[in-house]
Amino acid sequence: MEKQMQLLWELQEIDAGLDQIRDTQESFAPKLDNIKEDITLLESAGQEYQQELAAKEVERRDLRDVVERFKGLIALSKEKIAQISNNKEYFAVLKELEHNQKSVEKNEVELLGLIEEIDSIKEQIADNDKELATKHEEMAKEEKAITSKIASLERKIKAGGKGRLAKSKEIDELFLRRYQRIRRRFNDAVVAVEKGTCLGCHVNVPPQVYIDLLKGQALMNCPNCQRIMVNLGGADSEK
Ligand SMILES: [Zn+2]
């Protein structure tokens, strides 16, 4: 195979590797976006739970204060009763005592309900945090997977020797332009011809064209699909 054809072939291998990197990134992108979206939703849910919890804690504190105040009044009434001598005053204080005791009962029931609500919010926060941690783990796993996959693709390209720019500089500009034009239509712009058949379109090339190719004439296009043909058999024998 002509040196130029071989360079084109190698350039195509680099381009195929770069395509693979791009495809890998594109294939991972939706997955990463989905996880990111889930994380955002869980984080905002977590913030809402925290705000709800804070508000309920304030309510609980206020309600406890109310209970304590009524308990104080009850203690006061009990002291008073011990010192009372007349009936009228006695019944008045007793009535007040009853009223305050009922208030304590009512508020304590409310307080219990509030504590239950707070516990359930705390459970929801714990569940949310757990789910969030799972999503973060999932994200880290995916990121690690894509990073290692791309790194291995990059290593493969580097193992082929020069980078794309250096390689393309060695190629005749006319060849390069033609290669790039054909590659817009076919990823495999440069194809091998085996036993007279173009491996791009699988159509037999005319015998005379094939003979010219075997002779090593550079830059021949398949008459059917226009891909650039290379004679790999020739390349192998050169190696
Ligand atoms: Zn063809």
Your description of this structure?
78% of the residues lie in helices and 5% in strands. It is mostly helical. It has two domains: 7-163, Helix Hairpins (Orthogonal Bundle), CATH 1.10.287.1490; 172-238, no CATH class. A four-stranded mixed beta sheet has the order 2-1-4-3. β1 (190-194) and β2 (197-198) form a beta hairpin. α1 (3-83) runs antiparallel to α2 (87-159). It starts with a helix and ends with a helix. 11% of the residues are buried.
Whole-number count of domains: 2
* Number of discrete helical segments: 6
Helicity range of the residues? over 70%
Taking all residues together, what is the mean pLDDT? 91
CA radius of gyration is: 41 Å
In this entry the ligands are: zinc ion
Quick synopsis:
The protein is mainly alpha-helical and 239 residues long.
Secondary-structure blueprint of this entry?
Elements: H1 3-83, H2 87-159, H3 164-169, H4 173-183, E1 190-194, E2 197-198, H5 207-215, E3 220-221, E4 228-230, H6 232-238
Parallel strand pairs: 1-4
Antiparallel strand pairs: 1-2, 3-4
The chain binds zinc ion.
Index terms:
239 residues; mainly alpha; Helix Hairpins; 2 domains; four-stranded mixed sheet; 4 strands; rod-shaped; disordered C terminus; binds zinc ion
